[in-house]
């Protein structure tokens, strides 16, 4: 291009400033056109066809992690053994604090939910019942089911931790509710 073609001023001015009418570089224009052309098949593949989204990748990684995570035994003997396992109880305490403490209070003394520290239980007859109550919830009492929210391993850990609270002394315990249940052991 000649000097006269490159430095042609436009007819309009903004605040007394005039601009040169220089065209965009060709490589930039073609990059823009290619980007727009690429956007249509990309959108079609990921929104209309089988393209995997980030959610799909996350779900696949969760499934893979669950397959690798060992399942904890849910028998009565195993549950009694977990009461002496500090690792299981520590993990159960963490999950209990995150999901259960709002209703059962941090020390298990009961707030909206029942006291977990005394010998009286409403829906628990033996130690393995904790897992069933956690999984299915108690809708008439306001407890949501946690199956699908907590993994199997977490349910067993929380159940073991809740069973370990029996006999502890909470700071402000709720009145006993339900039937007196014999000791776990």
- Determine the CATH superfamily of the largest domain: Cytochrome c-like domain
Q: How many angstroms separate the termini?
A: 94 Å
The number of helices is 8
**Shape assignment:** elongated
Radius of gyration: 32 Å
How confident overall, as mean pLDDT? 90
Bin the strand percentage: 5-15%
DSSP strand count: 4
Major sheet: arrangement of strands: 1-2
What is the structural class? mainly alpha
**How many structural domains can be distinguished in the coordinates?**
2
Written as H for each helix and E for each strand, in order along the chain, the element string is: HEEHHHHHEHHE
Assign the CATH architecture of the largest domain. Answer: Orthogonal Bundle
CATH fold type of the largest domain: Cytochrome Bc1 Complex, Chain D, domain 2
Low-confidence stretches: none
What is the CATH C level class of the largest domain, in words? Mainly Alpha
Helix proportion of residues, in percent? 40-55%
Give a short account of the largest sheet: 2 strands, antiparallel
């Amino acid at each position: 291009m000649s000097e006269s073609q490159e430095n042609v001023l436009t007819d309009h001015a903004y605040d007394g400033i005039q601009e040169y009418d220089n065209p965009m570089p060709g490589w930039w224009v073609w990059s823009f056109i290619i980007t727009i052309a690429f956007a249509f098949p990309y959108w079609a593949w990921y929104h209309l066809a089988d393209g995997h989204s980030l959610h799909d990748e996350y779900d696949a990684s969760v499934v893979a992690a669950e397959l690798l995570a060992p399942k904890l035994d849910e028998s009565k003997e195993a549950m009694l053994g977990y009461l002496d396992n500090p690792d299981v109880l520590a993990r159960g305490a963490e999950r209990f604090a995150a999901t259960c403490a709002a209703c059962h209070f941090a020390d298990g003394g009961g707030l909206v939910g029942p006291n977990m520290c005394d010998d009286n239980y409403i829906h628990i007859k033996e130690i393995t019942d904790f897992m069933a109550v956690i999984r299915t919830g108690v809708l008439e009492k306001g407890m949501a089911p946690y199956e699908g929210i907590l993994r199997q391993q977490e349910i067993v850990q929380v159940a073991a931790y809740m069973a370990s609270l029996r006999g502890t002394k909470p700071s402000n315990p709720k009145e006993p509710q339900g039937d007196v249940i014999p000791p776990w052991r």
